[in-house]
Protein 1
Amino acid sequence: MANTADAIIDRRRLRRKLTFWRVLAFAILAVAMFGLYFFNTGSDGLSSKSAPHIAKVRVEGTIFENDELLKRLKDVEDSDAVKGVILSVDSPGGTTAGGEAIYEAVRKLAMKKPVVSQVGTLAASAGYMIASASDHIVARQSSIIGSIGVLFQYPDISQLLGKLGVKVETIKSSPLKAEPNFFNPASEEAKAMIHRMIIDSYDWFVGLVQERRKFTHEQALALADGSVFTGRQAVANKLIDELGGEEKALGWLKTKGVDDKLPVLEWKPVEKSSLGMFFSHSAVKMLAKYLGIPEESAGILRELTGDRMFLDGLVSVWHVDGKPVGAQ
């Protein structure tokens, strides 16, 4: 009995020790995560953002309507601590509506604070539209600039469906309802409808470039044929103002009365949402399932189509080899 009692006491002591070490380990982990959070977000903390500084906002990747970015630009606009803004642009473009929304937000911001765009590798299509919303554009000599224009793309999988023995029957209220679609070749009437829509948006885009870059209408049209330019060519064509990097952007801000000794703080997104990417992946899987393609092959379908099939509405994006550059 004595041995049994001693064993019970030892087990209780062991459990107490294990509990103590578990609690301690949990506390250390919590402190480490807390410290890591503040280490990673220290430059974006409230205390640093409350002191005078130059804000940097990145516009990167394929352009969509981005509520988080729009809110961030509004917060920068409303912050008394922000004395100037560097808009870091590296984008092939994206949806026309998404570019329009961000363009308008940057224009509102530029009404209150000096804003300069610093182009990295690429500012094309809707990416260039957004860059032009600032009052000064700086780009590298080898940056890619331009691709002013609008397009509308849709796949025609009718021949593929025929080979698979699938026929899609459609009953609709009028001939142009839901045209064009994936399942039938587009009619000439449908193509004409889309063309009218594209030309209307194109005229609007050309008007923006004409206004922002102080071109005549003829000058804007001459540069709006979809061509892309190096930074060197773009400065010669007055699509941008200066060659260089962040130091040139700071130099321009200084001419607007902004102290170039102020710290440059990047206003980062609070949380990067993968919701859009999730829906894009889901759409690919649904199409693969509809076509009878194994779900594991959905990745191959994505490689063949890129994201362009799933960009909603009119698109202003630069393509190379049939795929959007920088698509995620």
Protein 2
Amino acid sequence: MNYLSKSSLCLLAVVTSLTATAQETLSDKLQYKVTGRMLMDGGVYLRNDNHFGNGTEFNDLRVGMKATYQRWDMKVEIGYVGSKVSIKDAFATYTSGKHIIQVGQFYEPFTMDMLCSTFDLRFHQSPGSVLAMTNSRRLGVAYTYNATHYYACGGLFTDNDISNLKNTSQGYAVDGRFVYRPVNEAGKLLHLGIAAIYRTPDGALPDDDNKNTFVYKSAGVSTIDNRNLIYAEVDNARHQVKLGTELLIYYGKFFFQSEYIRTQVKRRNGLADYTGQGGYAQCSWLLIGDTYDYDAAPACPSRPIGRALELCGRFNIVDMNDRTAEVLGGAQKDFSLGLNYYINKHIGIKVNYSYVIPGKHIREISDKNFSVLQARFQFIL
């Protein structure tokens, strides 16, 4: 029995123990509701030497269901993006006080911007540094301890999602995230976090050219034209280690969020190890509205409370070039400004402007600066 299987059985034993020791009389009624979201974008490239295509798209279109039975919750969502239908979240959760067990397909506990809902993002896309160095949802199991001032989460995941299962041995990942919240009250929050991932690559079929390879890629600030600005392919990999730090501050109408991410790949056959890194800082101010909400379960930022008008700014930088490792994945910087109007907790309108400065070895486009103006209508159930 491999390490991943043994660890999964240990976590299953914890679930059984927590269930057996629960003393409260819980409702025997099954509760459920239909969920869904629609994020419709339009974009125009104002400086367009790369001949990017203007247009509209559904950035995120989903339908799903949430169900609750006693201490158990389940969520399943199916999404349509880029002419493809795929399973998004598909997991069950058991909660006992401050203890949470989650099993299925969901995001790994790494980077708070990737963990928060797309409806709650300040801008149309997560920063390029986050997109390049985090994964989509993965199959796995995780345990979380969530208290007022402390949050800790650890998980075991495969390197595949439901839509990308291979007929070969899957890689695995061990994840950990810790958050300290010395200030955590209505309208005031100080969130300090650190996270890490250890991951092995997938196996490969004999005719697969992508054996023992990690890929880091990002389309940048918009998917209206989804060419990759960042694309680093690191072959002959033994394993990778990712580290991330987090800072989140709420103070009344003021909001500040920042992360730094670094990845290192240990390689085989005498090849030099690879390192990529990036980070971002963003802040917001409520022109209308009183304060921001906070999603304590995944320990990540949420939207303003009630009707609100929000002014936002962000700076992002990512560098996936490593000359020593002879991997030149590209670098970029970008500045973004946004104005977001939340009509209510279900409906919002967002307008973003981004100015992108391509760096050395940028992929698929020229190295000339460009900008894009985007608008979004979003609806969530």
Protein 3
Amino acid sequence: MDLSTADPDTVLDTLDRRLVCALQVDGRAETGQIAEVLGVSARTVTRRLSRMQQAGVLRVVRMPDVEDAAVGALLLRVRVLRGTVDAIARALSDRPDVPFVDVMLGGQEIGAVMLSDTGARDRLLYGQLPATAAVTETTTHAVLHAFADAGQWQAGYLDEAEAAALARPVPPRPATPPPLDELDRALLARLAEDARQPHAALAAAVGAPESTVRRRLHRLDDAGLLRTHATVDPRLLGMAVDANLWLDVPPGRLAEVGTALARHPQVHGVLATSGPTNLMAAVFCPDHGGLYRFLTDTLGPFGVIRAETAIVARAIKRAGVPLQRPGAAR
């Protein structure tokens, strides 16, 4: 199931939002642990999560390795002719190496993140996109450093003690990623579809003993490869405005500003980039007034030289999960 079938009139109450936040902390947290931390019954947790998943408003997946692949990942800004945005957005969304696709307000720009090898990158940038008459301009920014990505954002319905109780210890990343065999790749592929699958279900799916699956997942977790993303329409969490801010920051303050923005509760991604601007921040705001206050009150003191604000009209794909079919009513 993808989230494009979700009922747009779905309403999440406070407990639903707290459950989503629990999965934002740890997408594989056990039902009993969530129930204990939030002070509700395990049956309530199971029922509420099942309802949201069956309604198509919540999906938990393994986070694509944006952080590990930061150097070499690309941020694309694709300008298209009016009326052609849906076809181009669909083509990008269908690519497995493009986990994030947004249509920007105005309908003439698509934003996307591409994780790919040099060959696939060059075929897209120098062959496929230029050969498409609907594409008028493509701007490509290389990611130089990831301060925070979408897998680290939390909507703020848990207090610090609750979030800490749900968080798993983060082991130091190994200097050299461990080699992956066929079983590792099969497990990661299954978790990319549903990160909450229990060990028994994973074992049955990949044809391995459950004890082996447990050991492999522990090793993959130690290597930092089991980060999760609770994919949900931010409007259901009280965030009606999604915007990408392209910032020109004095180089001497780049690390300071990027680190500070990564800690801000409204920010769901901060990347240092190549190009005419050197920092991109993705932010959720309750409304346009909230976005104005973020620009003036949060960015103002950082001495940002220039800020371009691009508002997301439709999120098409997030963390590899289709949220909406291009062209679908919203």
Protein 4
Amino acid sequence: MSSPAFRLRAGDVVTRAELVVEYGGSVQSGGIVPSNTSNSVFVFTDPAEGTQFGYVYDGFSPDGSAFHYTGAGRDGDQKLSGSNSPILTHAAKGRSLHAFSAAGVVAGSSTKLQRYIGEFILDPEMPFERMPALDRGGALRTVLVFRLLPVSAIPDDIVELVGYSGVAREPHAISVPVEINSTEFFETADRAGGMAVRRESQLVDEFIAHQVGHTFSRWAINLPTERTRLLTDIYDEADHTLYEAKAIAGRSDLRMAVGQLYDYRRHVHVEDLRCAVLLPERPTADLRDLLHDAGLGLAFREQRTFVVEPPNTSDRGERLYQ
């Protein structure tokens, strides 16, 4: 299909109806609008309305080199298909991608105005990231945050008007609830078998139940350059202690737990962070020494309660722990 020359410049303000007349599309079809009369895809951001659906990541990167845009889908994990496909396929289909931000309403009416930000292309190296968000019912889910690169420089005043995104390019950790019901959420560092996972989950639930007065959460660690996401086990917010649970108190499991905790704590920036291993029973004396020398704490089930041993604070352990 042929496309009319795109006349808008960054900062121009229009209504959706005006866009439809000149370039096609739809007045009220959501935030991602492929035109049916031109080779264009339009995306619209409106933080005032989007926040209630977890659209909290829209905005420019700190250096203005990329624009982050949250995909479509108000409930559950957002999908790469359906309403989000026009962004993913725009380059392959020869479509130009244009972004707009909310700019108030037409005087004396409820018609919304849209400020043109500029033309973008989807970053071929890192098209999107999955980020945690809440849906309309308050359930934790993931949203697609597309990374869009400007075709030409965006004026500084437009960047300031649009604002900046909370998506970081460097590794970062986000505190999330213990209960995660998202099938697309961050993965654990190891992929234990189903039975082991269930046993670890039961152990964690029992431990939390015994820690009266303590509040627990988890850390989702995003590693953008590796496209990796790690989900820790429980974090005791009162004691600043991060626990890694294992279903078996054997050597290979404890060695795995030590490595995971050392990996996690590099990215969890909590003052006086402590790390510990949670087990279904007391490990052998040599394995307790291993955790002691590594500067890690230990918690284990003993009859109907749990024994909690804090991390080693001796000189030797402190050097290893730092």
